[in-house]
Design a protein that fits this description.
By secondary structure, the chain is α+β, with helices and mostly antiparallel strands. About 45% of the residues lie in helices and about 10% in strands.
Length: about 280
Protein backbone atom coordinates (compact mmCIF):
# COMPACT_ATOMS: atom_id res chain seq x y z
CA UNK A 1 0.00 0.00 0.00
CA UNK A 2 1.38 3.39 -0.87
CA UNK A 3 0.47 7.05 -1.03
CA UNK A 4 1.35 9.69 -3.58
CA UNK A 5 1.83 12.45 -1.05
CA UNK A 6 2.81 16.11 -1.16
CA UNK A 7 6.25 16.95 -2.46
CA UNK A 8 8.90 17.34 0.23
CA UNK A 9 10.35 20.76 0.94
CA UNK A 10 12.42 22.40 3.65
CA UNK A 11 10.91 22.05 7.10
CA UNK A 12 11.60 25.25 9.11
CA UNK A 13 13.17 24.74 12.52
CA UNK A 14 10.59 24.20 15.23
CA UNK A 15 7.64 23.23 13.04
CA UNK A 16 7.60 19.69 14.45
CA UNK A 17 7.20 20.90 18.02
CA UNK A 18 4.57 23.47 17.07
CA UNK A 19 2.55 20.97 15.07
CA UNK A 20 2.76 18.33 17.78
CA UNK A 21 1.48 20.78 20.38
CA UNK A 22 -1.60 21.59 18.30
CA UNK A 23 -2.32 18.08 17.05
CA UNK A 24 -4.94 17.23 19.66
CA UNK A 25 -6.87 20.42 18.90
CA UNK A 26 -6.97 19.97 15.13
CA UNK A 27 -7.50 16.19 15.13
CA UNK A 28 -10.95 16.62 16.63
CA UNK A 29 -12.08 18.70 13.64
CA UNK A 30 -10.61 16.41 10.98
CA UNK A 31 -13.04 14.37 8.92
CA UNK A 32 -11.78 10.87 8.16
CA UNK A 33 -12.11 10.45 4.39
CA UNK A 34 -13.97 7.58 2.74
CA UNK A 35 -11.99 5.18 0.54
CA UNK A 36 -13.44 3.42 -2.50
CA UNK A 37 -11.02 1.12 -4.29
CA UNK A 38 -11.21 0.42 -8.03
CA UNK A 39 -8.99 -0.77 -10.83
CA UNK A 40 -6.16 1.60 -11.64
CA UNK A 41 -6.37 3.65 -14.87
CA UNK A 42 -5.77 1.69 -18.05
CA UNK A 43 -3.25 4.28 -19.20
CA UNK A 44 -1.01 3.33 -16.25
CA UNK A 45 0.37 -0.08 -17.31
CA UNK A 46 2.86 0.00 -14.44
CA UNK A 47 -0.07 -0.34 -12.02
CA UNK A 48 -1.46 -3.55 -13.52
CA UNK A 49 -2.58 -5.78 -10.64
CA UNK A 50 -2.91 -2.83 -8.25
CA UNK A 51 -6.02 -1.03 -7.02
CA UNK A 52 -6.33 2.74 -6.87
CA UNK A 53 -8.33 5.26 -4.83
CA UNK A 54 -8.23 8.91 -3.84
CA UNK A 55 -8.89 10.65 -0.55
CA UNK A 56 -9.46 14.31 0.28
CA UNK A 57 -7.23 15.87 2.95
CA UNK A 58 -6.92 19.44 4.25
CA UNK A 59 -4.65 21.76 2.33
CA UNK A 60 -3.79 23.47 5.61
CA UNK A 61 -4.01 21.39 8.80
CA UNK A 62 -4.35 24.58 10.82
CA UNK A 63 -7.67 25.08 9.03
CA UNK A 64 -9.12 21.54 8.79
CA UNK A 65 -12.50 22.79 7.59
CA UNK A 66 -11.03 24.81 4.74
CA UNK A 67 -9.77 23.90 1.27
CA UNK A 68 -8.85 20.29 0.53
CA UNK A 69 -6.64 18.49 -1.97
CA UNK A 70 -6.76 14.97 -3.44
CA UNK A 71 -4.14 12.33 -2.66
CA UNK A 72 -3.80 9.11 -4.62
CA UNK A 73 -3.65 5.73 -2.90
CA UNK A 74 -2.28 2.59 -4.49
CA UNK A 75 -2.46 -0.89 -2.99
CA UNK A 76 -1.61 -4.39 -4.08
CA UNK A 77 -3.91 -7.06 -2.64
CA UNK A 78 -2.03 -9.48 -0.42
CA UNK A 79 -1.10 -12.69 -2.19
CA UNK A 80 -0.57 -16.12 -0.76
CA UNK A 81 3.07 -16.99 -0.39
CA UNK A 82 13.17 16.18 -22.36
CA UNK A 83 16.46 17.78 -21.83
CA UNK A 84 19.59 15.56 -21.61
CA UNK A 85 21.31 16.09 -18.22
CA UNK A 86 23.95 13.66 -16.92
CA UNK A 87 23.06 12.32 -13.50
CA UNK A 88 24.78 12.91 -11.22
CA UNK A 89 26.34 16.13 -12.54
CA UNK A 90 30.11 15.78 -12.14
CA UNK A 91 31.75 18.58 -14.08
CA UNK A 92 31.12 22.34 -13.61
CA UNK A 93 29.34 22.40 -16.98
CA UNK A 94 27.04 19.54 -15.96
CA UNK A 95 26.35 21.20 -12.61
CA UNK A 96 25.41 24.42 -14.41
CA UNK A 97 23.01 22.44 -16.62
CA UNK A 98 21.32 20.92 -13.58
CA UNK A 99 21.12 24.28 -11.81
CA UNK A 100 19.40 25.77 -14.85
CA UNK A 101 16.94 22.89 -15.13
CA UNK A 102 16.11 23.10 -11.42
CA UNK A 103 15.57 26.85 -11.69
CA UNK A 104 13.14 26.29 -14.57
CA UNK A 105 11.30 23.58 -12.63
CA UNK A 106 11.06 25.73 -9.50
CA UNK A 107 9.72 28.65 -11.50
CA UNK A 108 7.16 26.43 -13.21
CA UNK A 109 5.98 24.82 -9.96
CA UNK A 110 5.76 28.13 -8.13
CA UNK A 111 3.60 29.54 -10.89
CA UNK A 112 1.23 26.58 -10.83
CA UNK A 113 -0.12 26.69 -7.29
CA UNK A 114 1.60 28.81 -4.66
CA UNK A 115 -1.19 28.07 -2.18
CA UNK A 116 -0.40 24.36 -2.37
CA UNK A 117 3.37 24.83 -2.13
CA UNK A 118 2.89 26.77 1.11
CA UNK A 119 1.62 23.55 2.67
CA UNK A 120 4.01 21.07 1.07
CA UNK A 121 6.09 19.87 4.00
CA UNK A 122 7.20 16.78 5.85
CA UNK A 123 4.80 17.54 8.70
CA UNK A 124 1.89 17.80 6.25
CA UNK A 125 2.95 14.51 4.67
CA UNK A 126 2.94 12.81 8.07
CA UNK A 127 -0.56 14.11 8.76
CA UNK A 128 -1.66 12.85 5.35
CA UNK A 129 -0.37 9.42 6.35
CA UNK A 130 -2.39 9.49 9.56
CA UNK A 131 -5.59 10.38 7.73
CA UNK A 132 -4.89 7.54 5.32
CA UNK A 133 -4.45 5.22 8.33
CA UNK A 134 -7.83 6.28 9.72
CA UNK A 135 -9.52 6.05 6.32
CA UNK A 136 -8.36 2.45 5.99
CA UNK A 137 -9.63 1.59 9.46
CA UNK A 138 -6.19 0.80 10.87
CA UNK A 139 -5.50 1.14 14.59
CA UNK A 140 -1.76 1.44 13.98
CA UNK A 141 0.33 2.47 10.99
CA UNK A 142 2.80 -0.13 9.71
CA UNK A 143 5.38 1.77 7.73
CA UNK A 144 8.50 0.99 5.70
CA UNK A 145 10.57 4.03 4.76
CA UNK A 146 13.76 4.32 2.76
CA UNK A 147 15.81 7.41 1.90
CA UNK A 148 13.59 10.48 2.47
CA UNK A 149 10.89 8.07 3.63
CA UNK A 150 13.05 7.55 6.73
CA UNK A 151 12.63 11.22 7.64
CA UNK A 152 8.89 11.04 6.99
CA UNK A 153 8.63 8.01 9.25
CA UNK A 154 10.60 9.78 11.99
CA UNK A 155 8.26 12.75 11.74
CA UNK A 156 5.16 10.56 11.92
CA UNK A 157 6.46 8.74 14.98
CA UNK A 158 7.15 12.03 16.76
CA UNK A 159 3.77 13.55 15.89
CA UNK A 160 1.73 10.39 16.55
CA UNK A 161 3.76 8.14 18.89
CA UNK A 162 0.68 6.23 20.04
CA UNK A 163 -0.34 5.31 16.49
CA UNK A 164 2.85 3.59 15.35
CA UNK A 165 2.72 -0.12 14.61
CA UNK A 166 5.68 -1.75 12.89
CA UNK A 167 8.06 1.00 11.83
CA UNK A 168 11.06 0.11 9.63
CA UNK A 169 13.37 2.97 8.67
CA UNK A 170 16.12 1.91 6.28
CA UNK A 171 18.84 4.57 6.22
CA UNK A 172 18.31 7.01 9.08
CA UNK A 173 18.80 10.69 8.30
CA UNK A 174 19.90 13.41 10.71
CA UNK A 175 16.96 15.87 10.50
CA UNK A 176 19.01 18.85 11.66
CA UNK A 177 21.52 18.27 8.86
CA UNK A 178 18.81 17.60 6.28
CA UNK A 179 16.98 20.85 7.00
CA UNK A 180 20.03 23.08 7.36
CA UNK A 181 19.36 26.36 5.60
CA UNK A 182 21.86 28.74 4.04
CA UNK A 183 24.01 26.00 2.55
CA UNK A 184 24.75 25.75 -1.16
CA UNK A 185 25.16 21.98 -0.83
CA UNK A 186 22.38 19.57 -1.72
CA UNK A 187 20.74 17.57 1.05
CA UNK A 188 22.56 14.49 -0.34
CA UNK A 189 25.92 16.14 0.35
CA UNK A 190 24.86 17.73 3.65
CA UNK A 191 24.02 14.36 5.20
CA UNK A 192 27.25 12.77 3.92
CA UNK A 193 25.73 10.29 1.47
CA UNK A 194 28.66 10.82 -0.90
CA UNK A 195 31.17 9.84 1.79
CA UNK A 196 29.15 6.79 2.81
CA UNK A 197 28.86 5.65 -0.81
CA UNK A 198 32.59 6.11 -1.39
CA UNK A 199 33.37 4.08 1.73
CA UNK A 200 31.05 1.26 0.64
CA UNK A 201 32.55 1.23 -2.86
CA UNK A 202 36.07 1.05 -1.45
CA UNK A 203 35.06 -1.91 0.73
CA UNK A 204 33.51 -3.68 -2.27
CA UNK A 205 36.55 -3.14 -4.49
CA UNK A 206 38.81 -4.38 -1.69
CA UNK A 207 36.79 -7.57 -1.27
CA UNK A 208 36.59 -8.02 -5.03
CA UNK A 209 40.37 -7.68 -5.35
CA UNK A 210 40.95 -10.46 -2.83
CA UNK A 211 39.33 -13.10 -5.04
CA UNK A 212 39.66 -14.27 -8.63
CA UNK A 213 37.65 -13.11 -11.61
CA UNK A 214 35.65 -16.33 -11.32
CA UNK A 215 34.26 -14.98 -8.04
CA UNK A 216 34.28 -11.26 -8.88
CA UNK A 217 34.49 -10.39 -12.57
CA UNK A 218 36.01 -6.94 -11.93
CA UNK A 219 38.92 -8.24 -9.84
CA UNK A 220 42.42 -7.14 -10.86
CA UNK A 221 44.13 -9.55 -8.48
CA UNK A 222 44.64 -7.30 -5.45
CA UNK A 223 42.54 -4.68 -3.63
CA UNK A 224 44.86 -1.85 -4.70
CA UNK A 225 44.92 -2.97 -8.34
CA UNK A 226 41.14 -3.32 -8.39
CA UNK A 227 40.65 0.18 -6.98
CA UNK A 228 43.04 1.52 -9.62
CA UNK A 229 41.15 -0.37 -12.31
CA UNK A 230 37.94 1.40 -11.32
CA UNK A 231 39.67 4.80 -11.29
CA UNK A 232 41.12 4.11 -14.74
CA UNK A 233 37.65 3.21 -16.03
CA UNK A 234 36.20 6.47 -14.70
CA UNK A 235 39.02 8.53 -16.21
CA UNK A 236 38.55 6.80 -19.55
CA UNK A 237 34.80 7.42 -19.53
CA UNK A 238 35.35 11.07 -18.55
CA UNK A 239 37.31 11.60 -21.78
CA UNK A 240 34.79 9.78 -23.99
CA UNK A 241 31.81 7.45 -23.38
CA UNK A 242 32.78 3.78 -23.29
CA UNK A 243 31.22 1.37 -25.79
CA UNK A 244 30.53 -1.91 -24.01
CA UNK A 245 29.19 -3.98 -26.88
CA UNK A 246 27.52 -4.05 -30.28
CA UNK A 247 24.14 -2.34 -30.16
CA UNK A 248 24.74 -1.05 -26.64
CA UNK A 249 24.51 2.66 -25.82
CA UNK A 250 27.86 4.23 -24.83
CA UNK A 251 28.37 4.55 -21.07
CA UNK A 252 29.46 7.93 -19.71
CA UNK A 253 31.31 8.71 -16.49
CA UNK A 254 28.02 9.91 -14.97
CA UNK A 255 26.34 6.65 -16.02
CA UNK A 256 28.99 4.61 -14.23
CA UNK A 257 28.73 6.68 -11.05
CA UNK A 258 24.92 6.56 -11.07
CA UNK A 259 24.68 2.81 -11.73
CA UNK A 260 27.38 2.00 -9.19
CA UNK A 261 25.66 4.09 -6.52
CA UNK A 262 22.31 2.43 -7.25
CA UNK A 263 23.76 -1.09 -7.09
CA UNK A 264 25.57 -0.35 -3.82
CA UNK A 265 22.29 0.66 -2.22
CA UNK A 266 20.35 -2.44 -3.20
CA UNK A 267 21.31 -6.07 -2.76
CA UNK A 268 19.87 -7.92 -5.73
CA UNK A 269 20.34 -11.27 -7.43
CA UNK A 270 22.00 -11.16 -10.83
CA UNK A 271 21.14 -14.41 -12.66
CA UNK A 272 23.89 -13.93 -15.25
CA UNK A 273 26.61 -13.60 -12.61
CA UNK A 274 27.95 -16.46 -10.54
CA UNK A 275 26.60 -19.92 -9.93
CA UNK A 276 23.50 -20.11 -7.70
CA UNK A 277 24.44 -23.68 -6.86
Amino acid sequence: MGIINRLSRRWPAGIGATTAATSSATDAALRVPDVTWSSCPADQPGLTGFRCATIRVPLNYSDPGGATISLGLVEHPAATPGTPAPSPPLTPAQQATWANLNAQLNQHCTGQDEALLTHVSTADGARDLDLMRQALGLQKLDYYGISYGTLLGDTYANLFPGRVGKLVLDGNIDPQTWFTSGSQLSSFLRIGSDEATASTLKAFLSLCGKVTTAQCAFSAGTPAATEQKFSTLLNRAAKAPVVTGTGQAPISESDIVTLTDAELQTVSAEPAIGDPH
